[in-house]
Structure formats: structure tokens, C-alpha cells
Design a protein that fits this description.
The protein has 191 residues and is α/β, with parallel strands linked by helices.
Length: 191
Amino acid sequence: ICACLVGSEMCIRDSRMVHPACPLNVECKKTMHIMENNRFKVIIVEDVKLELKGTEEIFRHEIPNAEVIGTAMTENEFWELLKVQLPDMVLLDLGLGGSTTIGVEICSSLRKNYPDMKVLIFTGEVLNEKLWVDALNAGADGIILKTGELLTATDVQAVMDGKKLVFNYPILEKIAVSYTHLRAHETCADL
């Protein structure tokens, strides 16, 4: 993995994508050193084993400054992990064990008991916009949908840098479409 600054933009490249303006050089090595020194700890909470393993691989290969200190497939496993070691970030699936409310409850509890801990939602709940709002109201720092583009180093780093309301493209697209429909209904009502 090579991460370097090209102008003012950060370029991430790996074996699948080569950015011509990002040759592996001293600047890349310096940036990688900076990223490695800004290490943070993550716990992944995901109830589908294949998705859990895939997400671990994304962290291992795409986000080198993250250390996955534990994974949990259930709410109970997650709370047990927290007794052992506190992460800097929790990557949390909302739909644990078939319930869409457990993830929101975990998020709310984390915000109340560990206010500095970052919570990034990573969910397949594509059509449940109310659930997204519930998660944000519970204190989530962002929501990444599992459809389309995957979890990226840019999204994770934005949350670690303290940004709020971090979303990937699929969720931004849904928000924009909902807003457009809402504005269209308001305009029709005004006529």
C-alpha cells in the first residue's frame, strides 16, 4: 500500500490501482511513516462471519494505521471485549442478530459511557432511512453503507480526525434523492 500527498489531495493506491502522479518515492514513504505513527485501535462488530472477515481484510490491507484489537459477532461478545481493552473506534453493524435496534442501543450506550470513542456505522440497512437518523441521534460519527463503494481509509480517517456526519457515496446519493423528493412535494404544496 502506498499513501502519499499529491498536491493537496491524498492518493491511496495498492496493487489494484496505480495513480500515475503517485510514484513510490521518498514522499510516499514519509507519509506512510506518518500514518503508521497515527495508529489507532478498532473493534469490529458484525454478525455475518463472511462480512466480518472481509472487513478485517479491508483494515489489514487498506488502512495500515488501524489495529483491529477484536471482533464481535454479538452484543454480548462486544461488551466482553470492551472489558479487556478500549478501542479508539468501533465499526458497528446496525443489524445484529436480526434486530435493527441493537446497533442503535450500543451506539447510544457508547456515546454516554465513552464520549471520546468514535463510532462508525457499517451497515447493509439500505432502505431504512429512519434507522440512519436514529443511529446519528444516538451519537454515531458516520454511516457507511455496505453497497457500492466499500469502507475506505478516507472515511475511517475522517472519523478519527473528529469529523461528524461521515457518509460514503451510496448514502449521500440516497439523502440527495430524498431531499429532492421532499423539495418537489413542498413546491407542489405551495402551488
